[in-house]
Amino acid sequence: MPVITNIEDLRVLAKKRVPRMFYDYADSGSWTEGTYRANESDFQRIKLRQRVAINMDNRTTASTMIGQPVTMPVALAPVGLTGMQHADGEILAARAAKEFGVPFTLSTMSICSLEDVAENTGRHPFWFQVYVIRDRGFIERLIERARAANCSALVLTLDLQIIGQRHKDLKNGLSAPPKMTLANILNMMSKPRWGLGMLGTERRGFRNIIGHVSGIEDMGSLSQWTASQFDPTLNWNDVEWIKKRWGGKLILKGIQDVEDARLAVSAGADALIVSNHGGRQLDGAESSIRALPPIVDAVGKQIEVHMDGGIRSGQDVLKAKALGAHGVYVGRSYIYGLGAMGQAGVTKSLEIIHKELDTTMALCGRTDINTIDKSILLPGHYPT
Fold this sequence. Notes:
This protein is α/β, with parallel strands linked by helices. Helix content is 44%, strand content 11%. It has helices at 7-17, 20-26, 34-44, 82-85, 89-100, 114-119, 136-148, 167-172, 182-189, 192-199, 219-229, 236-246, 258-266, 288-299, 314-322, 332-341, 343-363, and strands at residues 63-65, 68-70, 74-76, 105-106, 127-131, 153-157, 249-255, 271-274, 304-308, 327-330. It has an eight-stranded parallel sheet. The chain has a two-stranded antiparallel sheet with strand order 1-2. Strand 5, helix 7 (136-148) and strand 6 form a beta-alpha-beta unit. Helix 13 packs across helix 14 and helix 16 crosses helix 17 (343-363). The radius of gyration is 20 Å and the shape is globular. The model has no long low-confidence stretch (mean pLDDT 95).
C-alpha cells in the first residue's frame, strides 16, 4: 500500500482501482472543463498570512452547520452513483462521516437507497438531496421517505433543470450497471478489487427510484424516465412548495449569483450553497470561491452561506471560511478516497483535510475555527 499524504494520492489510487466510466463520471466537468479546473486553481491564488510566537494550545475546529455540531465545518456533498465507485459506497461514506462527526448528504441518484443508508448506520441522522422533477407525486413520496429515514436536512439542487454535456460520459457510455461492451468488459477485468465488491452486493441500480415509480423495473425504463423528468419549468414557487411539504431544515444548492441568493433568503431557506455543480453544468461560469464573497456580503447576515467546488485540502477549507463560508462540502475529495480504499479511504480523506485545516489555522495564528476571517489572508491576494 502506498503512503497516502494528501487527496491527490487518493485520486491516483482511485483511478487505478475504479472502472474508467465511473472514475471519469466523478472526475470530469462539462464541455471544456474550464470551470471545473478554475474551481481548484482559483484557491491557489489566495495567499495566507503566516503568524508566529502565538500560543497554539487548545486548538479547535469544532463548529456547526445549520445548527448541527460538526467536528469541522465540512460536509460530504451529494454525489450520484457513489455506489458505483465502490460496492455499497453510500453506506460506507455515511458510516465514515458518522464516525468522524461531519454530515453525509445522500443523492437522489444514489445506488444505495435512503432506507439502505438508514438501516446500515443505526438510523444516524443524515442529509438528503432532491431535484425538482415533473413527477411531483414521486417528490412527495421521497420527502416522506427521507423523514422516515431520520434525515435532518433536505438539500434542494437548483442548477440541474437541464443537464450539461460531459463528453467523457458520452464516450464511455455511462450507465449503472455498466453496459457490457467489449471495451468496458476489458476495463472492468483490470479492476478485480472493484469487481469482487460489486459481485458481493445486490445494490447496483438506482434504489431510490427502482421499485418506487410505477413502470420502472429495469435500467432501460429508468433511463427513459430519468431523461424525461428533469423539469425546465423549475421556479421559486417550487422551492416554497417543497419547503412547505418538508417542514424541516432546507438548504438550497447551486447559487452563484447575488440576485439568486436574495431570492433564496426570501424563499425561507436555512442555508444556501454557492456552487456551480463542480463545474459539471455551465462551463465558463465563475469558480465557486470567486462567487462566494459578493454573496456573503449581500446575504451572509441573514442566512448561512455554504460553498462547494474545488475543495481538495484543509487549506481550501480555511480559505473558504476566511471569505465568509459558514461551512463547505467535499465531493470528489471523499469519492477518491472511497474508490481507492472503501470506507477507510473516506475516513482517510477526512483525516487529511482535518489535519491540514488544523495545522494551517495554527500557522496563521488562530486556535478557533469560528474566529477565522479575512484577516488571515494576504491583502490583494484574494477575491473581493
